[in-house]
Design brief:
The structure is a single chain. This protein is an alpha+beta fold. It has a single domain (about 1-85), classed as Alpha-Beta Plaits. The chain has helices at about 15, 20-35, 60-65, 70-75; strands spanning about 1-10, 40-45, 50-55, 80-85. The relative contact order is 0.31.
Length: about 100
């Protein structure tokens, strides 16, 4: 498994527009975390225009499939997603083998 940083970019006024979908979004992320795939996740602040998710996965396509059904993806809160393999060398996430 490799480690990936996933940058999600939000629609304008995301704080207001995400409200109807936020609980479903958080429930989905909690499920991914409990499964061991999602390590960390949250919005980047000031300005709140994007989010960062850290995944362990085999490849980017796996992550795309996991996030395709997220309420933020389905309802247009995320306008773009960038998935980058991350070579973790320091910290609590073990480096990919």
């Amino acid at each position: 498994m490799k480690t990936y940083a996933v940058f999600t970019y939000f629609v304008e006024n995301a704080a207001d527009r995400r409200a109807p979908y936020r609980e479903a979004h958080l429930a989905h992320l909690r499920e991914l975390h409990e499964s061991g795939r999602l390590l960390l996740g949250g919005a980047l602040m000031e300005p709140m225009d994007s989010g960062l998710l850290v995944f362990r996965a085999s490849n980017p396509a796996e992550i795309e499939a996991l996030l395709a059904t997220d309420s933020y993806a389905v309802n247009g809160i995320w306008t773009k997603m960038v998935i980058r393999e991350w070579n973790v060398v320091v910290g609590n996430v073990a480096p990919a083998v």
